[in-house]
Write a structure and sequence with these properties.
It is built from three helices and seven strands; from the N terminus they run H-E-E-E-E-E-E-E-H-H. It has a single domain, classed as Peptide deformylase (Peptide Deformylase). It is α+β, with helices and mostly antiparallel strands. The strands form two sheets. It has a five-stranded antiparallel sheet with strand order 1-2-3-6-7. It starts with 25 loop residues before the first helix and ends in a 10-residue tail after the last helix. The structure holds ligand GNR and nickel (II) ion (NI).
Length: 179
């Protein structure tokens, strides 16, 4: 297993749509193992494959609260939201591809979605709370969308500008190049 480098804003890879998974093979198992290692190391509660530069519709999630709590790893492949509640909820969101930037985002409070597991078996589930928010955040990644697309244009433009400058200076947080 390998911790893989994260793709950081303004990298244009984050704007590309990811492709459906068709082969449920050993390479997929390796990808998922690397995604969990990268996600737990960061640490984050979710990761989309595009965030490590792989344009496949693969998501890992673990919303277990505290470090001492048992791990609850979820692998979500080829997800499709089939129903969203009218009722919304607001969470302060962050993203491993936009380090140390947090804003409140309003999304449907509950969703029903289908997905495949690592073997290709199909499931349909209802999610709410933090899990519903996280699944929506990760499905956005698969479609080239980021949580900053849900905030005001003024805040988004400021955020992108800050990360563009950091990338130019080579001083992006977590790059290990902070002087
Ligand atoms: O670690 C993460 N925390 C988080 C908090 C609120 C809403 C969504 C998230 S997902 C984020 C990790 C990440 O960037 N996933 O793509
Ligand atoms: Ni994210």
């Amino acid at each position: 297993m390998t911790i893989r480098p994260l793709v950081i804003l303004p990298d244009k890879t984050l704007r590309l749509p990811s492709e459906p998974v068709t082969k449920f093979d050993g390479a997929l198992k390796t990808l998922v193992a690397d995604m969990f290692e990268t996600m737990y190391d960061a640490p984050g509660i979710g990761l989309a494959a595009v965030q490590i530069g792989v344009l496949q519709r693969v998501i890992t999630i673990d919303t277990a609260k505290k470090e001492e709590d048992p791990k609850e790893p979820l692998v979500i492949i080829n997800p499709e939201i089939i129903w969203s509640s009218h009722e919304t909820s607001t969470y302060e969101e962050g993203c491993l591809s936009i380090p140390e930037y947090y804003e409140e985002v309003e999304r449907p409070k509950s969703i029903r979605f289908t997905y495949q597991d690592i073997k290709g078996e199909k499931y349909e589930v209802l999610a709410d709370g933090l899990l519903a928010t996280c699944v929506q955040h990760e499905i956005d990644h698969l479609n080239g969308k980021l949580f900053i697309d849900h905030i005001s244009k003024l805040k988004r433009d400021r955020c992108v500008k800050k990360f563009t400058k950091q990338a130019q200076r080579g001083t992006a947080p977590l790059s290990g190049a902070n002087a």
